Amino acid sequence: MTLKLSVIGCGYLGATHAACMSSLGFEVVGIDTDPHKVELLSRGELPFYEPGLDTLLAAEMKTGRLSFTTDFAAVADADVHFICVGTPQSKDGLAADLTYVKSSVAAIAPFLKDGSLVVGKSTVPVGTAQGLRDQLAETAPQADLAWNPEFLREGFAVEDTLTPNRLVVGVANDRAEEILKEVYEPVIALGTPWIRADLPTAELVKVAANSFLATKISFINAMAEVCEAAGGDVTVLAKAIGYDPRIGSRFLQAGIGFGGGCLPKDIRAFMARAQELGADQALEFLREIDNINLRARQRVIDVVRADLSEDLTQYKIAVLGATFKPDSDDVRDSPALDIAAQLQAAGAQVVVHDPKGIEPARKRFPNLDYAEKVVDAVKGADAILHLTEWKEYRELDPSVIGQLVKQKFLIDGRNMLDRNLWRNAGWRVHALGRTD
Ligand code: UDX
């Protein structure tokens, strides 16, 4: 008999997982405490922007296999329960806030049927899974718990779920592994590497992967600082070192650094957990990774000040991009918005444009000015800051934009625009990590 699945928490991770599991043929119920989110999803509509997931969700709703509810009792029918709730940075420190993970496991415990498996997908501090397993042993001894970290990238969520580059399962026994093999059978059949680990290793794999990625980005941004000081070009340097297969060329894009709902909070939570474990020295370098990352934002502000004036009160700055990366409407810990807000706090008049992120940005920074069109954002600007590399910004015509601005001054915070094209149209261009 085919397994029935439940997905607890229908945000980015959960909504994607629910729709993808339904597309594999499973009956899936998604549960979320937010009635508005459940209502939207039940109509086949996404509460956020993610390429390809909208059409998949709408199609899966039509099959009748996928449903959403606010009622935790709905898990009673399911055999495998994926915990996909958020683990944000806690308000009073670096550690992860585990409130939602703990409360969702407690909420489903009374309804778990005999032999069911709870599977954590959320990113948690190492040791959490064992704690939850112990808790279940008391509240729902008929159920077991495993951990199956998720590596999906925003903008590629469906692809990363259905064709991941590996599947990692943390289990305490063979039975839990067998159940997960049954769930992922079509994905395994594609040749996806399958890694069985114990619970703590599975939890660590996720934070280790994100720490490595963050380190790679901060490494190249540190090189950008040195290139600026020494008169070099970080994009050429990145290309040259990237040809060494031991280094690899991906995630060496220098610029204003990483943001989003994962990388920044994951490295901080990892440091906090290591400290609790007495292994803080091992992760001391992550503090520097975080510092380099935040410094990249500051460097943009320094360039604006050095070029325009220390006192920015008379200047208008157009910020292109609000989201933490393109093809997403996510503005969590967005470097672009952070820079925009800091420049506004310094007295500049700042207008922000983004193809998808204006509404979420307005919720976080209601005092910033927003423009629906690039031409409106740049009108009368003394500087244009290219801070999120949306494709449409690469298609801008510098001559046309040049007629709208007050000063032809561009900072490319992502090293993605064609500098020569802009320079030939009479622009002063500053690209991070490039001196010429
Ligand atoms: C990340 C991980 O990639 C994913 O595996 C994990 O599951 C969740 O966290 P995501 O947050 O979607 O995914 O974004 P990612 O594509 O990793 O980019 C993170 C940030 O790094 C973005 O702000 C991006 O602009 C920045 N970045 C990325 C760089 O500045 N330079 C690069 O070379 C690559």
From TrEMBL:
EC number(s) reported in the record: 1.1.1.22
Pathway assigned to this chain's UniProt record: Nucleotide-sugar biosynthesis; UDP-alpha-D-glucuronate biosynthesis; UDP-alpha-D-glucuronate from UDP-alpha-D-glucose: step 1/1
Reaction equation(s) it catalyzes: UDP-alpha-D-glucose + 2 NAD(+) + H2O = UDP-alpha-D-glucuronate + 2 NADH + 3 H(+)
Assigned keywords, A-Z: NAD, Oxidoreductase
GO biological process entries: polysaccharide biosynthetic process; UDP-glucuronate biosynthetic process
KW Aminoacyl-tRNA synthetase (keyword) present: no
Classification via SMART domains: UDPG_MGDP_dh_C
Entries under InterPro entries matching the protein: 6-PGluconate_DH-like_C_sf (IPR008927), NAD(P)-bd_dom_sf (IPR036291), UDP-Glc/GDP-Man (IPR017476), UDP-Glc/GDP-Man_DH_C (IPR014027), UDP-Glc/GDP-Man_DH_C_sf (IPR036220), UDP-Glc/GDP-Man_DH_dimer (IPR014026), UDP-Glc/GDP-Man_DH_N (IPR001732), UDPglc_DH_bac (IPR028357)
GO molecular function: NAD binding; UDP-glucose 6-dehydrogenase activity
A Pfam family recorded for this sequence: UDPG_MGDP_dh
EC top class named in words: oxidoreductase
Domain UDP-glucose/GDP-mannose dehydrogenase C-terminal: 318-419
PANTHER family: UDP-GLUCOSE 6-DEHYDROGENASE TUAD
Family: Belongs to the UDP-glucose/GDP-mannose dehydrogenase family.
The name this protein goes by in its record: UDP-glucose 6-dehydrogenase
